[in-house]
Amino acid sequence: MASQSPPDRFLRLNSVLDRTGLSRATLYRKIADGTFPPQKKLATRCCGWRESHVNIWLRNPVSFTLKDLPPSED
User: How many domains are there within the chain?
Assistant: First the structure.
């Protein structure tokens, strides 16, 4: 029987800021520089970050690049 990983959930801005310790300005600057995972649009006025992508960043925040993320499932 194949093992299944738990479903990936989306984190909202305040949760990402709490987990990373970054300020809002620093978070968006890192996204623009490609050193933090980009957010995904969930609805018209709602976006979130994949929890698994934030966890990958947390493992190595200094040298993270977008190449560290798994291929997109979207």
Answer: 1
